[in-house]
Design brief:
Structural class: mainly alpha
Low-confidence stretches: 1-5
Organism: Desulfoscipio gibsoniae DSM 7213
GO cellular component, one term: membrane
Largest sheet: 2 strands, antiparallel
CATH topology: Four Helix Bundle (Hemerythrin (Met), subunit A)
Strand order of the largest sheet: 1-2
Number of strands: 2
Mean pLDDT: 93
GO molecular function: CDP-diacylglycerol-serine O-phosphatidyltransferase activity
Transmembrane segments: 29-50, 71-91, 97-115, 127-145, 151-168
Number of domains: 1
Protein name: CDP-diacylglycerol--serine O-phosphatidyltransferase
Length: 176
Amino acid sequence: MINVNGNSPLTQLPNVLTLCNITMGLSSIITASFGNFTLAGLLIIIGAFFDRLDGHVARKYRMTSEMGKQLDSLADVITFGLAPAITMFLLSFTDTVVLGFIITVIFVTCGAYRLARFNILNYSDVFIGMPITVAGFLLALLTLFQTQMPIHPYWTAISMLFLSYLMVCKREIKKV
Protein backbone atom coordinates (compact mmCIF):
# COMPACT_ATOMS: atom_id res chain seq x y z
CA MET A 1 0.00 0.00 0.00
CA ILE A 2 1.23 3.46 -0.84
CA ASN A 3 1.57 5.81 2.10
CA VAL A 4 0.06 9.08 0.93
CA ASN A 5 -0.31 12.00 3.29
CA GLY A 6 -2.52 15.02 2.60
CA ASN A 7 0.40 17.09 1.27
CA SER A 8 1.77 14.53 -1.16
CA PRO A 9 1.39 15.24 -4.88
CA LEU A 10 0.27 11.60 -5.17
CA THR A 11 -3.05 12.56 -3.58
CA GLN A 12 -3.87 14.26 -6.88
CA LEU A 13 -3.26 11.12 -8.96
CA PRO A 14 -6.98 10.23 -9.26
CA ASN A 15 -7.73 13.80 -10.41
CA VAL A 16 -4.89 13.67 -12.94
CA LEU A 17 -6.36 10.43 -14.31
CA THR A 18 -9.78 12.11 -14.50
CA LEU A 19 -8.22 15.01 -16.42
CA CYS A 20 -6.77 12.42 -18.82
CA ASN A 21 -10.33 11.13 -19.26
CA ILE A 22 -11.53 14.67 -20.07
CA THR A 23 -8.64 15.04 -22.52
CA MET A 24 -9.75 11.85 -24.32
CA GLY A 25 -13.32 13.16 -24.57
CA LEU A 26 -12.29 16.55 -25.92
CA SER A 27 -9.80 14.94 -28.30
CA SER A 28 -12.56 12.66 -29.55
CA ILE A 29 -14.80 15.64 -30.36
CA ILE A 30 -11.99 17.48 -32.16
CA THR A 31 -10.96 14.33 -34.04
CA ALA A 32 -14.55 13.67 -35.12
CA SER A 33 -14.86 17.25 -36.37
CA PHE A 34 -12.03 16.43 -38.79
CA GLY A 35 -13.83 13.28 -39.95
CA ASN A 36 -11.69 10.66 -38.22
CA PHE A 37 -14.56 8.76 -36.59
CA THR A 38 -12.58 5.59 -35.91
CA LEU A 39 -10.02 7.47 -33.82
CA ALA A 40 -12.83 9.45 -32.15
CA GLY A 41 -14.48 6.20 -31.05
CA LEU A 42 -11.19 4.76 -29.84
CA LEU A 43 -10.45 7.89 -27.78
CA ILE A 44 -13.78 7.43 -25.96
CA ILE A 45 -12.82 3.84 -25.20
CA ILE A 46 -9.43 5.02 -23.88
CA GLY A 47 -11.35 7.57 -21.79
CA ALA A 48 -13.30 4.65 -20.29
CA PHE A 49 -9.98 3.10 -19.25
CA PHE A 50 -8.99 6.33 -17.45
CA ASP A 51 -12.46 6.55 -15.87
CA ARG A 52 -12.14 3.05 -14.49
CA LEU A 53 -8.58 3.66 -13.32
CA ASP A 54 -9.23 6.96 -11.52
CA GLY A 55 -12.00 5.47 -9.39
CA HIS A 56 -9.97 2.37 -8.64
CA VAL A 57 -6.92 4.37 -7.54
CA ALA A 58 -9.00 6.78 -5.46
CA ARG A 59 -10.81 3.99 -3.59
CA LYS A 60 -7.84 1.64 -3.19
CA TYR A 61 -5.55 4.30 -1.75
CA ARG A 62 -8.31 6.21 0.07
CA MET A 63 -7.81 9.36 -2.00
CA THR A 64 -11.47 10.10 -2.67
CA SER A 65 -12.57 13.72 -2.38
CA GLU A 66 -15.55 15.93 -3.14
CA MET A 67 -13.42 17.66 -5.79
CA GLY A 68 -12.70 14.30 -7.40
CA LYS A 69 -16.38 13.37 -7.39
CA GLN A 70 -17.36 16.61 -9.13
CA LEU A 71 -14.48 16.38 -11.60
CA ASP A 72 -15.42 12.78 -12.40
CA SER A 73 -19.02 13.77 -13.19
CA LEU A 74 -17.80 16.56 -15.46
CA ALA A 75 -15.49 14.09 -17.21
CA ASP A 76 -18.36 11.63 -17.66
CA VAL A 77 -20.57 14.25 -19.32
CA ILE A 78 -17.76 15.22 -21.70
CA THR A 79 -16.33 11.79 -22.54
CA PHE A 80 -19.47 9.64 -22.42
CA GLY A 81 -22.16 12.22 -23.20
CA LEU A 82 -20.89 14.96 -25.48
CA ALA A 83 -18.10 13.08 -27.28
CA PRO A 84 -20.05 10.02 -28.46
CA ALA A 85 -23.19 12.04 -29.24
CA ILE A 86 -21.32 14.67 -31.28
CA THR A 87 -19.25 11.98 -33.00
CA MET A 88 -22.41 10.10 -33.96
CA PHE A 89 -24.08 13.34 -35.07
CA LEU A 90 -21.19 14.12 -37.42
CA LEU A 91 -20.98 10.53 -38.67
CA SER A 92 -24.64 9.64 -39.13
CA PHE A 93 -26.84 12.68 -39.37
CA THR A 94 -25.31 14.76 -42.18
CA ASP A 95 -28.47 14.33 -44.29
CA THR A 96 -30.91 14.54 -41.37
CA VAL A 97 -29.43 17.41 -39.37
CA VAL A 98 -32.59 18.38 -37.47
CA LEU A 99 -33.21 14.79 -36.38
CA GLY A 100 -29.55 14.42 -35.45
CA PHE A 101 -29.59 17.64 -33.44
CA ILE A 102 -32.66 16.55 -31.47
CA ILE A 103 -31.28 13.06 -30.79
CA THR A 104 -27.88 14.48 -29.77
CA VAL A 105 -29.50 16.90 -27.31
CA ILE A 106 -31.68 14.14 -25.87
CA PHE A 107 -28.72 11.79 -25.37
CA VAL A 108 -26.54 14.42 -23.67
CA THR A 109 -29.32 15.80 -21.45
CA CYS A 110 -30.44 12.31 -20.37
CA GLY A 111 -26.83 11.50 -19.52
CA ALA A 112 -26.43 14.70 -17.50
CA TYR A 113 -29.71 14.04 -15.70
CA ARG A 114 -28.61 10.48 -14.94
CA LEU A 115 -25.35 11.75 -13.45
CA ALA A 116 -27.11 14.37 -11.32
CA ARG A 117 -29.50 11.72 -9.99
CA PHE A 118 -26.58 9.38 -9.27
CA ASN A 119 -24.75 12.13 -7.35
CA ILE A 120 -27.65 12.79 -4.98
CA LEU A 121 -28.81 9.20 -4.41
CA ASN A 122 -26.82 6.77 -2.32
CA TYR A 123 -27.21 3.23 -3.62
CA SER A 124 -24.20 1.06 -2.94
CA ASP A 125 -25.11 -2.21 -4.66
CA VAL A 126 -27.21 -1.09 -7.66
CA PHE A 127 -27.35 1.59 -10.31
CA ILE A 128 -30.66 3.26 -11.04
CA GLY A 129 -30.70 3.39 -14.83
CA MET A 130 -27.78 2.67 -17.12
CA PRO A 131 -24.65 4.64 -16.18
CA ILE A 132 -23.66 7.27 -18.74
CA THR A 133 -20.26 5.59 -18.95
CA VAL A 134 -21.87 2.40 -20.26
CA ALA A 135 -24.20 4.25 -22.66
CA GLY A 136 -21.34 6.36 -24.02
CA PHE A 137 -19.08 3.32 -24.34
CA LEU A 138 -21.79 1.46 -26.28
CA LEU A 139 -22.30 4.46 -28.54
CA ALA A 140 -18.53 4.56 -29.16
CA LEU A 141 -18.67 0.88 -30.15
CA LEU A 142 -21.58 1.66 -32.48
CA THR A 143 -19.45 4.43 -33.99
CA LEU A 144 -16.63 1.97 -34.66
CA PHE A 145 -19.11 -0.49 -36.18
CA GLN A 146 -20.66 2.22 -38.32
CA THR A 147 -17.33 3.30 -39.77
CA GLN A 148 -17.09 -0.20 -41.26
CA MET A 149 -20.77 -0.83 -42.05
CA PRO A 150 -22.99 2.27 -42.29
CA ILE A 151 -26.39 2.12 -40.62
CA HIS A 152 -29.42 4.15 -41.68
CA PRO A 153 -29.73 7.34 -39.57
CA TYR A 154 -33.14 6.26 -38.29
CA TRP A 155 -31.65 3.10 -36.75
CA THR A 156 -28.91 5.20 -35.20
CA ALA A 157 -31.57 7.56 -33.82
CA ILE A 158 -33.53 4.63 -32.37
CA SER A 159 -30.35 3.23 -30.77
CA MET A 160 -29.50 6.60 -29.22
CA LEU A 161 -33.06 7.09 -27.96
CA PHE A 162 -33.03 3.62 -26.42
CA LEU A 163 -29.73 4.31 -24.65
CA SER A 164 -31.12 7.67 -23.49
CA TYR A 165 -34.18 5.96 -22.06
CA LEU A 166 -32.04 3.36 -20.29
CA MET A 167 -30.02 6.12 -18.62
CA VAL A 168 -33.06 7.85 -17.11
CA CYS A 169 -35.31 4.87 -16.41
CA LYS A 170 -35.67 3.78 -12.80
CA ARG A 171 -34.68 0.20 -13.44
CA GLU A 172 -32.17 -1.18 -10.95
CA ILE A 173 -28.98 -2.55 -12.47
CA LYS A 174 -26.70 -4.59 -10.23
CA LYS A 175 -23.16 -3.25 -9.94
CA VAL A 176 -20.41 -5.62 -11.04
